[in-house]
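User: Structure please.
Assistant: Input sequence and predicted structure:
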Amino acid sequence: MDSAFIYAAARTPFGKFGGALAGVRPDDLAVTALRGVLAKVPGLDPAEIGDVVWGNANGAGEDNRNVGRMAVLLAGLPVTVPAATVNRLCGSSLDAAMIASRAVESGDAGIVVAGGVESMTRAPWVLPKPSRAFPAGDTAAVSTTLGWRLVNPLMPKEWTVSLGEANEQLAEKFSVSRERQDAFAVRSHTLAAAAWDSGFYDDLVVPVEGVDLPRDEGIRPGTTPEVLAGLKPAFRPGGTITAGNSSPLNDGASALVLGAETAAGRIGADPVARVAGRGAAATEPQMFGYAPVEAANQALRRAGVGWGDVGAVELNEAFAVQSLVCLDAWPVDPEIVNTKGGAIAIGHPLGASGGRVLGTLAHVLRERRERWGVAAICIGVGQGLAVVIENVSAR
């Protein structure tokens, strides 16, 4: 089979919940990322795109009815360019990239665009449909922003705890202190701010038209352990998890161009990285934060390399504790992980985060002249995904 390569990556800046991107529809955010990544390969005729695979976790509002296809049409691409939307919750856009890479490897498509979008601000409230007409009682609107809703009563209660409670259980199980979590969060903000200041993100982030948001909105470069120590636990009295050592709610979109090596002439650019291995793993739903451990190990085995070969890791920071238990389980130097900041600082717009970590990883490998890298993400309801890529310029 052919190998699949990443040719370009782009994303919007990530906005805070109710922040600068609150007025932008998710399908319009998707258009920004789609146009942004295609602008990086101006020699590509969009009619040559064999498919678009788009990630989205909620899909209950303006991102309904296949937001990937809506983005293709709204972006002005030829109507002959097909698109699908996939939902693997937080891993949706990493899953989209994995699906795209398989399409290239199998020969089903020579060029595929993958990406994802989420507006957690604009995720609507929904009402359950009544079982009979004209019910006399009241009903409650349910937020679709994050977490469990309209839960099937047959689902075991221990599986349906909140995301925060699930991670409090992780902290207990693996004895991860509040101090370690806060220190990890401070590192995320410090490195994200430094990466922006150094210009690293200038080539990755594209502006959203009509919005004054020059960089990710949630980064707090002045954050200190002392500041975070003053925050109250968010999910359990006496717990360790706070708003400061968790990823926030966000809005944003990301995109990548993938293609076969033989497609370089049509794309008009050289490939950046080769998709070398993929992994998907699952655990009990409340243990979702630990699922990237096996997913990454799978991806490395399939790439034919080991942790000793890895020069950079991008692990989505859903919670500091979740990231720390993964790093403790992998034989990896923590200093090569999320060197440009992570989701605690940058943000975690669910459907867009996988594309962000993969695009960032490709650029980090080039900057550091490292050959092998791992992008991994935990996923609600007990799943994890990972992709191993090879920097083609470091072969």
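The domain at 4-120+248-389 is CATH 3.40.47.10 (Peroxisomal Thiolase; Chain A, domain 1).
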